[in-house]
Structure formats: structure tokens, C-alpha cells
Amino acid sequence: MANHVIGSFQLMKSLNRSLILNIIRSSGMISRAEIAKKTRLTPPTVTNIVHELLNEELVIEGQTGPSSGGRKPIMLRINSRNFYIIGVDVGVKKVRFAVTDLNAEILMKSIVSISERMTEEELVKLIIKQIYTLIDKADIPRTKIMGIGIGMHGIVDAERGISIFAPNLNMKNIPLKSMLEAEFMIPVKVENDVRAMALGEAWFGSGIGFEDLICINVGYGIGAGIIMNNKLFRGRHGLAGEIGHTVVDLNGPRCTCGSYGCLQTLTAHDGLKSAAMKEIILGRRTLISELTEGDVDKISGKIIHQAAKSGDDLAIEILQTTGKYLGAAISNLVHVLNPPKIIIGGGISKAGPFLLDPLKEVVLKRALSEEARETIIVESGLGDRAGLVGAVTLILEDMFSLNYENRRQTV
Ligand SMILES: [Zn+2]
Fold it and tell me: Which residues form a coiled coil (predicted)?
């Protein structure tokens, strides 16, 4: 770490502090002597900072560790159960809330439906009300809440904490961060939901141990969170990862964005639904019709998967085609960013081999080199928790990084 470029003593101290906090967190349990060895900080520096962390109850002393000759060392660990984080996952139809500890373990959660007609003000009011209810139910002191992390679908200005545009809700410019910080007087972070998920997977899911990865979420929309060198990559205007609007068929169907043949129109929820509808209207016999009792509005990814599991040809075909389109998009990503690992999440990832096998096949076939063929493609490790754990990780990332102290002072 480049301590020498930072002039201010305070800043260096907080840099060392976050370094120590991070090492305790990633080690699970560690002694002061080991911290000094790993960080190359002097033992008195480590002792002083650890003393501070113990006073703040961020770190606790546990049992003694194995002795290397002398006195048995006292092991330190993060006091994860002493502090809380609130996670909010704003989806297209539902908003999920959770209280977690510092290991992103969900202690309590709630879920509310939202309507398409809801206004920006109503959404913020609902979020505030639900957070109050959750804090009350969980019965936790406000001073122990380290922050509120929000994963919001659509385009987000993460730096200013503004939801710029949520297409499916048709909402614009919601200053979530400033509104919630004014209400709760706790740090608030806002990020695009799929980017938050990618962070969650990197810290707690299928991405553990990978510095670079891409997490793709396929649900009502489709997006990707890109992590490079352990950091989220957002691009110049926060559009990086909007793979739902990359074109995979020049003559494809019209997309909600106005363009044609976007990946989203062929693979996301509506893409699956219209593929099934088209065949049913043409008179094709399928289990999907039986499962929906003839009501095409009831067709969903879940039902298509259910039909596929019972051997329905059309359902299997639809999932295979979806897998192939996703495979083409992923093969593009492999050739642009060359990540070692790609994680697939969202409702569709539950279709398992029906979708993943053709997807992987396309990537294998199109990969340029032997190494590209080795790109690991896996399902989300967090499953349904991915959105909430991701939202919470936004706060954890900040807590365990250099920014934390500076940021707390500005709130
Ligand atoms: Zn589009």
C-alpha cells in the first residue's frame, strides 16, 4: 500500500486502520503478532489501532491461539453480531428489506409489493416506513446500524446516490441517498441492483477469491455487474454492464428502449413469455397451456421451467434458445473483458442445465482461445438472497475501505 503518497497523519492512520480491519475480517481470527507480520506495521502501531477498535467494540478478543514458544497469543475477530446493516433491494414488482450483521447474515427481512402507478415520492415514503418497521421489529439501537445499502434497478448515479432512471417503474431522479440520510442520520449507499449483486457474490457468494468477475442477472430485465481488481466498474456514465441492450439480432423484436433485437427482448421474462405465446397462438400443444389454464398472461419463467422438467418440448426449446442467446452475449463479454469467472443469477438461473448447458456450449464453440474456453460459468451462490446481500455489501465495502472515516464525518 502506497502510504508514502498520503501526507496527512490522520489519513495514514485510517489507512492502517482499514488495513488491519480488513485483515481481521478476511482471516476470521488472528493475533496481533500475525497482523504485524502480514501488514508490516510495527507492533506498537498494531497494538494502538487494535486498542481503538476494541474500544469501539468493532473488534473483540476471543480465545487464545496456538503458542509459538512463548505466551499463547489472544486472537482477535470482528464483532460482527454487535453491529447491523440495513439492505434494501428495489425490484420491478417488489421491494425487499433486511437487517443483517457484519457478515451479511440476514437476521430479519420483509417484502412489499409495489404498483406500476406508484410515484417517486410514494416509493421513498414506503421505503422509509418499512425501514422504521424493520428497526422496530428487530429491536436494535439506531447507533448500532452502520448504514443503509440500496440496490435499485435501472440507472443509478452511485456517487451522488441518485436513482437516475428506473425504466420499469418509469421513475426519474430520486435522490435516495440524501433523503434517507436526512431521515435516519445514517450513511446511505445507492447502487444499481445488479452491480450490488456482483459485489455480494464477490464477498459472500460464488465470486469469493476472484479479483475479476462478471455477474449477470436475468429477470424482468437483464444486466451485468462487472468487478475488476476487486472494484466495481461503472464506465463513464454508469452504463457499463447494461448488456440487456446489447444487440444480438439486428432484425429482432423491438425493445422497450426503442432499439431492435436487444438481448433483453429475447431472453428476459417478456422474451420467454412472447416466445411461448407465439407458438401457443399457432396452435402448438404444450404443457405450458395446461399449467396456465389457457391464460397466456400467466406464462412465466417459473412455469416454463416446470413444463421443461416434465419433458415438454416447447418449454425445453424456449430455454435452450434463451441459453444460446445468453451464450452469444457472454461470449462477447469474454472477448471484451476476458473475466476468469461469470456468475448467472436471477429467476432464470433456476432453470439450471436446461439453460446453462446450451449457454456453455455456445461460449465453448465461439471462444477464441483455449484459455477463453476455460472461463468458469456458474450459478449464483447467493440465489434469492443476492439482491439483499449485495445491498448490504455496499456498506461493508465502505466500512472496510479507506473512505469510511471520512464519510462518516460528512454525514
Ligand atoms: Zn433495448
Answer: none
Cα separation, 282 vs 297, whole angstroms: 16
Mean pLDDT of all residues belonging to the chain:
89
Domains contained in the chain, CATH given: 3-78 (1.10.10.10), 82-201 (3.30.420.40), 207-381 (3.30.420.40)
d(CA 268, ligand 1 centre) in Å: 11
Task: Give dist(CA 398, CA 358) in Å, integer.
Answer: 38
Each residue's pLDDT tens digit, 248-296 = 889 998 998 899 999 999 888 888 888 999 999 899 999 999 999 988 8
Write the CB contacts of 69 (distance below 8 Å, at least 6 apart in sequence). Answer: none
Estimate to the nearest angstrom the gap between the alpha carbon of 70 and the chain centroid.
45
The alpha carbon of 159 and the centre of ligand 1 are apart by a number of angstroms equal to 25
Q: How far is the CA of 347 from the centre of ligand 1 (A)?
A: 20
**Mean pLDDT for the stretch of residues 120-133:** 96
The backbone torsions φ and ψ at residue 342, rounded to the nearest 5 degrees and listed phi first, read: -125, 130
Spell out which residues have Cβ within 5 A of ligand 1, the ion. Answer: 245, 255, 257, 259, 262
User: What's the CA-to-centroid distance between 192 and ligand 1, angstroms?
Assistant: 17
Q: Tens of pLDDT along 221-239? A: 899 999 999 899 999 888 8
CA of 278 to the centre of ligand 1 (A): 20
